[in-house]
Design brief:
Layout: H1 14-22, H2 24-35, H3 62-86, E1 91-93, H4 99-107, E2 112-120, E3 123-132, E4 138-144, H5 151-167, E5 174-179, E6 184-188, H6 189-208, H7 235-244, H8 255-263, H9 269-273, H10 295-313, E7 322-324, E8 341-348, E9 361-372, E10 378-384, H11 388-408, E11 414-416, H12 420-432, H13 436-444, E12 448-450, H14 451-458, E13 459-461, H15 468-471, H16 476-479, H17 489-504, H18 508-542, H19 567-580, H20 587-600, H21 602-619, E14 635-643, E15 652-660, E16 672-677, E17 686-687, E18 694-707, E19 713-721, E20 735-737, H22 745-762, H23 777-782, H24 793-796, E21 797-800, E22 803-804, H25 807-816, E23 821-825, H26 832-845, E24 849-853, H27 857-870, E25 878-880, E26 893-894, H28 899-906, E27 911-915, H29 917-920, E28 931-936, H30 944-950, E29 954-961, H31 982-987, E30 999-1000, E31 1003-1004, H32 1009-1019, E32 1025-1026, E33 1034-1035, E34 1041-1047, H33 1057-1070, E35 1074-1076, E36 1084-1085, E37 1091-1094, H34 1098-1110, E38 1117-1119, E39 1129-1135, H35 1147-1152, H36 1154-1161, E40 1164-1173, H37 1184-1197
Domain PD-(D/E)XK endonuclease-like: 101-234
Organism: Jonesiaceae bacterium BS-20
GO molecular function, one term: 5'-3' DNA helicase activity
């Protein structure tokens, strides 16, 4: 056996390969153990069994054993399905096949093969299934018990696909995972293969460096270690942290922090502790923070390191040390009330039920009270749920119990530890569509109190974790017992699974015994929460903090004696439940009912999520705030104090806020925000029951954002209004947060009407023959029934070099059905707006009444302007209800307020009008007899719920947009996908819309064929092509297509000087080059305005502008991708700015998102440049979707 390098006979699994990308040290040790170079911790080689169940190498993991058994059964179930589909002889067992046998079976067009042996390099394995597709290719199918696709599983099917390709099998571009939920996910294996190749090469490079005579040791080369990358979290790393005194011993220190600390020579706890003066957050004299970690975070880590050391020096049998770091945080506690309860869940994430694709079950709702039982312990109550019907009932009973207790004792609270309990309650309320308003009110009233929030903000302990189990030693005397039997969540899950097995076998006594053990564990957790509250209250008293009694009253409509459930909700929910539990209905009938039910509360859920996030920010540390509309100033000052300006009625003041914009921040001049104040906050401002901070709900407006040259900082000028009846104050805000949501009542009312309509058709129905769905465009939309009509080619001929005009096809489809839904997917430059304007003009001429709607006024204005530009319609046939303070587009009539009805009355024949969803849902905007057609533009960014709302106004729907460009944004959690884009709903999981659902505009008029092919492969499955005319686009000495400029830079987070310099270099080198649009257009020299530069972060945008201005290129347009949608220039340049995945703010997804790259690159008419750090190529993402995205990026990088 070779002692160094990669043994030729070694076989490796994908899991081992992936592990090497996550932790070289752990993967190296596993490899050495597998090779026999290293002994297991028990002292035996890996091939010998010590018999110790607790051995990390040889011991059996009950959870893993259970998973393996379930996985085998799942694979056999899918095999049985295939045997029914293809016949037993149509599914070959290939477990003993050679490579030639596999090729022979494929040549014979065998429908399916089972357990197919594959090998690629050192990787060997068995593809669970190969199934022949309609196009003659074979797709890899792998069964996985998981409820969602996992990264290793996606890499695995790509590895199998790669091996089969090398063998000579025609492999489908799509691979499939058959999940334990019954769902089958599909993945582009051609995108994943480049990532797999990277993972494989990483592993090969690692093991090539290993040597049996010099085993891997912990630490960097400077520390005397092997120098391998370490994650600090796996078992192998964990056992080395204490001997190495690694900074990861310090609570709160992340792997990212660790890498930055290593970069400045800080490796140990002791070195980190010396950063700050003892017992302070002040840096030691002479220390300069060059770590890249924010000053306040680094100081907190140093203080935590000092406390860790103090804990080590204290009583070894004691609970450890703690320090109060913010006594105000103890104000989150509430005065004790005799009706308080202390709550904890137990759940099984692996629970599934027949006929359902959902996973997970909260099987035990447990709580104790302050009242003592006969055993001297707090009284305990438990609600068990062994299926989803019981889970819903338990949830309702628990919420009703809390409401009843709260009604009788308004000062009571529900205490829990960590956010899981409230998160799970929100999920259950949404999942079952029950008690949503009641739970929301309890949450807003501060009835639920998370003690973890008090501990996290108020205390610092010497331990490595703030889990409640690690805090119990501080109040162990009060707790009075230690954990026995079931002692952790994993034990609880396994014990519950075993209990269910015993029940199914008829062993009721053993079933009850095991449940009792779980219940004891849950009771202990609840009691621990009670004693934690008492301990924290004692600390608060010692600190002089007064714990106030907070009382809130339920709104009258939520009181039990007044609560009346919405009959529409009840009717729809009963129908849905019946369909789920044995009712025989067509899929369309249940889909329409489910969507109507979910859409009714779409806007409530969106608003609830806003307020939940807002109240969380009022409680969370400011440094934890995230989002695209927040700003955390490091310094604030008043530049103009409170005064009444001009004709304004209320005082306002001007603030200058200094700080850094979050990457991807959407704040702009004119944006509305709320200002937040720390305690003690000014009197009269809005407050929350769950936090001590307050906020100015009257709002503030950003007037200017000025970059501070040479830094990443900006100065934000903000005009803040003084709320009514609030005295003037001098306090300064600690941050800006998103403004209050605009009322969506008109839209919600239309969705309520739709729900009532559907409920009237399904209420009380018990079988499909009784259901008579509404005949409408909305029913067709929810059924994905797109109207498509074939017409003679000569009708569609535009007369332009054989290129086709889609207008006749779209018109014919709309005319073909009085309730038509026509979906048009228009890639970049494919003429979507051209099609829209000409379809509208033609139908208005035919007498149609048309409404145009979109997510923003600007998009509506663009369509109407294109209609006007056609020259076929007069101003008396085109109108717009403009936004507040805006004017309608030139050449259109103003339809503000009552003007719309006057416009309709005076219109002779057809007309087209435009507005947002608020306009189309308003009664005073509808013409007599409704519209004939509603056109939704940019429907790839328009929610399905809002589409259902606005389509009340018309008989037909025309959708135009592209889900492959910028996406629809939603912040709420919904039980059905009413939050996804309406065009995305029609397109489904594919990149392009199916021919029987709509039209794909497959020709772009913008890009040269060589650039089109890049975009087509990236986002459109190779189906997008360029019109012939674009092949005449030329730039002297520059090939058309995509050009990659890969730079070597590190340490850049959201702005890169290196990339800014490269962008200037590209433009400077090309300035003056002859540019020719097409063969009929004379060439001319390229100018500064012939370039569009796109960057993901505002910091890079500002930096690019500075560099371009210094080079005399002020006329070059620079911005984030959303600024340039719909625009074009001869050459587009994309600068990704960040140096690596670990440094990328908001993650790598934000930087090289496929949709954003599609929009960015496709701005170019002739060519595009992509400028980025070479270190982005080496990133191995953690999710399947991100792996596909990274693979697509790697394929782009290969197009040099």
């Amino acid at each position: 056996m070779p002692t160094k390098g990669f043994p030729v006979h070694l076989t490796s699994s994908v899991t081992e390969l992936v592990a090497a990308t996550q932790c070289e040290y752990g993967a190296a040790r596993a490899y050495e153990l597998k090779q026999g170079w290293r002994l297991a911790p028990c002292g035996l080689p890996v091939g010998q069994h010590c018999g110790d169940q607790d051995c990390t190498v040889h011991g059996a993991d009950e959870m893993l054993t259970r998973l393996a058994q379930l996985g085998d059964a799942h694979e056999q179930d899918f095999l049985a399905q295939l045997q029914v589909r293809f016949g037993r002889e149509g599914v070959l067992d290939a477990s003993d096949f050679s490579a030639q046998d596999v090729l022979a079976a494929v040549a014979q067009q065998v429908p399916a093969l089972f357990q197919v042996p594959v090998r690629t390099g050192a990787l060997v394995g068995r593809a669970d299934f190969l199934i022949r597709q309609d196009d003659g290719t074979y797709a890899v199918y792998d069964t996985k018990l998981a409820r969602s696709a996992q990264s290793a599983a996606v890499l695995q099917i790509a590895a199998y696909a790669d091996a089969l390709l090398q063998l000579g099998v025609r492999v489908s571009q799509t691979g499939y995972l058959v999940l334990g939920s019954g769902e089958i996910t599909h993945h582009n294996v051609f995108d994943v293969i480049p990532v797999f190749e990277l993972v494989r090469q990483t592993y090969l490079d690692l093991v090539a460096r290993l040597d049996s005579q010099s085993l891997t040791t912990w630490g960097t080369l400077e520390q005397g270690g092997t120098g391998l990358q370490t994650c600090g979290r796996c078992d192998g790393c964990e056992e080395q942290l204490l001997p190495a005194r690694d900074v990861l011993l310090v609570m709160g220190c992340t792997a990212g922090h660790r890498a930055k600390l290593h970069g400045v020579g800080i490796f140990t706890v002791e070195e980190l502790a010396r950063v700050c003066v003892a017992d302070s957050l002040e840096f030691e004299p002479g220390f300069v923070n060059s770590t890249g970690i924010r000053d306040n975070m680094l100081a907190a880590l140093s203080a935590q390191a000092q406390l860790f050391l103090a804990g080590e020096q204290g009583d070894p049998d004691g609970p450890g040390e703690y320090r109060v770091i913010d006594k105000d945080s103890f104000g989150l506690l509430r005065a004790p009330d005799s009706d308080d309860i202390f709550f904890d869940f137990e759940g099984d994430p692996l629970h599934t039920e027949q006929g359902s694709t959902q996973w997970g079950l909260e099987y035990l709702f447990g709580w104790c009270t302050r009242e003592l039982g006969s055993d001297g312990r707090p009284w305990f109550n438990a609600l068990w749920a062994h299926d989803r019907v019981a889970e819903k009932q338990a949830f309702e009973r628990f919420i009703d119990y809390v409401l009843a207790r709260f009604t009788g004792s308004p000062g009571m609270h529900v205490y829990h530890y960590a956010p899981y309990e409230t998160t799970a309650l929100k999920r259950l309320a949404t999942q079952y569509g029950t008690r949503e308003e009641e739970l929301d009110h309890l949450l807003r009233s501060g009835v639920f109190v998370d003690l973890y929030a008090v501990v996290r903000s108020g205390l610092r302990t010497s331990g490595r974790s703030l889990s409640i189990k690690k805090l119990e030693p501080f109040y162990a005397d009060a707790l009075g017992m230690s954990r026995e039997g079931v002692t952790n969540a994993a034990d609880s899950i396994t014990a519950y699974a075993d209990a269910i097995t015993e029940r199914d076998l008829g062993n009721e006594t053993e079933f009850e015994r095991r449940l009792a053990l779980i219940q004891d564990y849950n009771r202990y957790d609840c009691e621990s929460t009670l004693h934690l509250y008492n301990w924290l209250s004692g600390i608060a008293q010692d600190q002089g903090v007064v714990i106030e009694r907070a009382e809130y009253a339920l709104p009258e409509e939520l009181l039990p004696e007044h609560a009346e459930p919405d009959p529409t909700h009840v009717a729809l929910r009963e129908f849905i439940d019946h369909a789920q539990h044995g009712g025989q209905f067509h899929e369309l009938e249940t889909v329409v009912a489910r969507m109507a039910w979910a859409a009714m509360d779409y806007h409530k859920r969106e608003a609830k999520q806003f307020w939940w996030d807002h109240f969380a920010r009022l409680q969370d540390p400011v440094e934890d705030w995230t989002g695209s509309e927040i700003f955390r100033p490091i310094r604030a000052e008043v530049t103009d104090d409170w005064q009444i300006v001009g004709r304004e009625r209320t005082p306002s003041r001007i603030l200058a806020l200094h700080g850094e914009l979050e990457p991807g921040n959407k704040l702009r001049p004119g944006a509305k925000v709320m200002s937040v104040y720390d305690a003690p906050a000014p009197d009269g401002l809005q407050e929350s029951a769950t936090a001590q901070r307050k906020y100015n709900a009257s709002g503030a407006t950003i007037e200017e954002i000025e970059p501070v040259h040479g830094t990443d900082r900006v100065v934000m000028t903000v005009k803040e209004k003084l709320p009514k009846d609030v005295p003037e104050y001098s306090d300064l805000p600690i941050g800006l947060t998103p403004p209050m949501p605009i009322s969506s009542k008109p839209i919600a009312d239309r969705l309520q009407e739709f729900g009532v309509e559907v409920a009237g058709h399904v209420q009380g129905k018990t079988s499909t023959g009784q259901v008579d769905l509404p005949v409408s465009a909305r029913t067709n939309l929810l059924g994905r029934r797109g109207a498509v009509v074939e017409i003679a080619d000569e009708q569609a001929d535009s007369g332009a070099a054989g290129n086709h005009d889609w207008t006749p096809r779209v018109v014919a489809a709309l005319v073909s059905d009085p309730h038509a839904v026509v979906a048009v997917q228009g890639p970049p430059g494919a003429g979507k707006t051209y099609v829209a304007s000409h379809v509208i003009s033609e139908l208005v001429w035919a007498g149609w009444k048309i409404a145009v709607v979109a997510q923003s006024h600007a998009v509506v204005d663009n369509v109407l302007s294109a209609v006007v530009k056609n020259g076929k319609l007069s101003e008396h046939s085109v109108g717009k209800r403009p936004g507040s303070g805006q004017a309608p587009p030139e050449g259109t009539s103003d339809l503000s307020g009552p003007k719309a009805q006057k416009f309709y009355a005076q219109a002779a024949g057809g007309f087209v009008v435009g507005g947002t969803a608020w306009a189309l849902c308003a009664d005073n905007f509808l013409p007599e007899g409704r519209f004939d057609l509603v056109v939704i533009d940019e429907a790839g960014q328009y929610s399905l719920a809002n589409a259902l709302a606005v389509s009340h106004a018309a008989d037909r729907i025309l959708l135009l947009g592209d889900p492959q460009q910028l996406p629809q944004v939603s912040q709420g959690v919904h039980p059905e996908p009413v939050n996804e884009s309406v065009l995305g709903w029609m397109v489904g999981d594919d990149a392009t819309i199916a021919a029987d659902r709509g039209f794909f505009l497959d020709q772009t008029w913008r890009m040269h064929p060589d650039l089109t092919s890049v975009v087509s492969d990236l986002s459109y499955e190779g189906k997008l092509h360029a019109v012939a005319k674009t092949s005449g686009r030329k730039v002297d000495n520059l090939a058309p297509g995509l050009h990659v400029r890969e730079l070597d830079h590190l340490g850049n987070v959201a702005a890169s000087v290196e990339e800014a310099q490269e962008v200037v270099r590209i433009i400077t080198e090309l300035l003056g080059s002859q540019w020719q649009l097409d063969a009929q257009t004379p060439p001319r020299p390229l100018e500064a305005q012939d370039f569009i530069v796109v960057a993901p972060y505002n910091a890079q945008v500002h930096l690019l502008r500075d560099h371009l201005a210094a080079a005399g290129l002020e006329e070059t347009a620079v911005g984030t991708v959303d600024k340039f949608q719909g625009q074009e220039a001869p050459i587009a340049i994309v600068s990704l700015a960040t140096s690596s995945a670990t440094e990328a703010p908001r993650g790598l997804e934000f930087v090289r998102n496929r949709n954003r790259l599609n929009v960015s690159i496709s701005r170019g008419q002739h060519s595009a440049f992509m400028v980025f750090s070479k270190h982005l190529r080496g990133a191995i993402p953690g999710s399947p979707h991100q792996i596909e995205e990274q693979g697509a990026f790697l394929r782009l990088c290969a197009k040099r």
